Amino acid sequence: MIAVITGDIINSQHAETEVWITRLKNLLENWGSAPHTWEIYRGDEFQFKCNIDAVFWRFLAIKSLIKSQENLDVRIAIGIGEENFSSEKITESNGTAYVHSGRLLNDLKNDGHTVAIKTSNDSVNKDLNILLKWSSKDFDNWTMATSEIIHEMIMNQDITQEDLAKRFNISQSSISQRLKRANYELIVETNQYFRKKISEL
Fold first, then answer.
1. How far apart are CA 30 and CA 196, in angstroms?
2. Alpha helices per DSSP H over 68-121
3. Do the Cβ atoms of 145 and 174 come closer than 8 Å?
4. Which InterPro entries does this UniProt record tie to the protein (predicted)?
């Protein structure tokens, strides 16, 4: 089984494309090469595949990166399933993971939520989507400053609060307060729960 994330940038028409697209490409390149592992297409949509264990953390890395830029957000559909055909271009690959993810993104555009997951297990879908709806009430309200800190923590899990304070030229207590406001410890616990539920598929 693999995880496929299909997403689109919310409010992309109100932002400088070159800024967010360059940063998103740089992030996706950490996880594989285009166009086999990831691709940005139709202006502001993207798709990439990853290991199922990593998918929640990857989602948060993208979410925090995009929300660290003014007025932007991202809609993300996570599909878990098989890859029956692997093309040189991810957008031409196929399997249940791709079908789940692509159809789910269309549903998200209609229902107003910013993230959802679909697997072949209805019980897992129900549990994880309730979790995502609750947690998104926090994620969707991250400020640019909070998003920057969360992104650094996700991408550099060994980084200390002292290192972050130097990087952002603010006090360690300010870093600590931002992490508390963002419920970072709860985010880490949520990632562990997410991985456990997906491992049961």
1. 24
2. 96-111
3. no
4. Cro/C1-type_HTH (IPR001387), Lambda_DNA-bd_dom_sf (IPR010982), SatD (IPR032580)
Closest Cα partner for 62 from 43, 47, 82, 84? Answer: 47
Supply 168's token pair: 């952002």
pTM listed for this prediction: 0.95
DSSP state of 95: S
DSSP SS3 for 77? strand
Q: Are 16 and 9 in contact (CB under 8 A)?
A: no
Strands 115-118 and 73-81: parallel
Q: Which amino acid is at 63?
A: K
Question: Which helix H or strand E contains 137, and what residues bound it?
Answer: helix 122-139
Contact criterion met (CB below 8 Å) for 128 and 120: no
Q: At 27, list the tokens.
A: 């992030």
Q: Which stretch of DSSP H or E encloses residue 65?
A: helix 55-67
Amino acid making up residue 81: G
Dump pLDDT digits (tens) for 54-112. Answer: 999 999 999 999 999 999 999 999 999 999 999 999 999 999 999 999 999 999 999 98
Q: 2-26, pLDDT tens digit by residue?
A: 999 999 999 998 888 898 999 999 9
Torsion angle of C-alpha atoms 40, 126, 72, 81, degrees rounded to 10: -10
